[in-house]
Amino acid sequence: MTAKIASIPMVFTALVVFIGCTVWTIYHSFTRSRLLPAPDKWVGLDQYERLWSTRRWLVSIENLAIYGICSMILSLVIGFTLAALLDRKIRGEAVFRTIFLYPFALSFIVTGLVWQWILNPQFGIQSVVQKLGWSGFAFDPLNNPDIVIYGILIAGIWQGSGFIMVIMLAGLRGIDEDIWKATRVDGIATWKTYLVVIIPMMRPIFVTALVLIASGIIKVYDLVVAQTSGGPGIASEVPAKYVIEKMFQSQNLGQGFAASTMMLVSVLIVLIPWAYLEFGGKRRD
């Protein structure tokens, strides 16, 4: 009880700062704020109309959708697969676990630069494969506007899959050994045990992993800056980069606030239905 009372000031401060800053941002998204906030220059929905008529913003939304969907699916599949393999008590598990988790310890800037070099056609994957005899091989995603977002996706998956693996492995280690013994006695195949028994039991783990992945997707910025700086052209733009550049480079706070508000709305569109299904359903039950 004492600990809860002691935490009240911190919780109250966090809520006031978060809610206050959110309301302040939304309010100024309806103004013509430029270098400095201008609460008296009310323009209504003009900033939002300008935002959704800007090709750069539309491209960033499309890229975020592609990156987000692919990242969620691939991170979960790869992370769970690696965790399932390590859960078989293989030799050298600690070494493999460290190797798979190590990329997560790197910053996105470092990861972006590393994969910029790896994907560089002059001395990266393309060059190595061509030197091995496949002279016609071409793999240069970061300079191809049609597939540049997938080059960024490769770096993101490489860094994040190890962390998801650790979360999944913790969930698998929490499964009662008696369940595995019962499935073996019943003659259920291992793959079917995972699909029908283990994965449904790990639903909270998957939800946690999805929330963590989604939070990283929404704010993806430094990975893009390190690899492509939004190029070629605007082919790899993302919403977070659009917001940062509008607020600090173009000195257009109103447009930056409008874009950040739309990012908040996109989060709420996903979060509110999930929260209702997750907690509302339990109350009804």
TrEMBL record:
<feature type="transmembrane region" description="Helical">
    <location>
        <begin position="98"/>
        <end position="118"/>
    </location>
</feature>
<keyword id="KW-0813">Transport</keyword>
<feature type="transmembrane region" description="Helical">
    <location>
        <begin position="257"/>
        <end position="277"/>
    </location>
</feature>
<dbReference type="InterPro" id="IPR035906">
    <property type="entry name" value="MetI-like_sf"/>
</dbReference>
<feature type="domain" description="ABC transmembrane type-1">
    <location>
        <begin position="61"/>
        <end position="274"/>
    </location>
</feature>
<dbReference type="InterPro" id="IPR051393">
    <property type="entry name" value="ABC_transporter_permease"/>
</dbReference>
<keyword id="KW-0472">Membrane</keyword>
<keyword id="KW-1003">Cell membrane</keyword>
<feature type="transmembrane region" description="Helical">
    <location>
        <begin position="7"/>
        <end position="27"/>
    </location>
</feature>
<dbReference type="InterPro" id="IPR000515">
    <property type="entry name" value="MetI-like"/>
</dbReference>
<protein>
    <submittedName>
        <fullName>Sugar ABC transporter permease</fullName>
    </submittedName>
</protein>
<keyword id="KW-0812">Transmembrane</keyword>
<feature type="transmembrane region" description="Helical">
    <location>
        <begin position="64"/>
        <end position="86"/>
    </location>
</feature>
<keyword id="KW-1133">Transmembrane helix</keyword>
<dbReference type="Pfam" id="PF00528">
    <property type="entry name" value="BPD_transp_1"/>
</dbReference>
<feature type="transmembrane region" description="Helical">
    <location>
        <begin position="193"/>
        <end position="218"/>
    </location>
</feature>
<feature type="transmembrane region" description="Helical">
    <location>
        <begin position="147"/>
        <end position="172"/>
    </location>
</feature>
<comment type="similarity">
    <text>Belongs to the binding-protein-dependent transport system permease family.</text>
</comment>
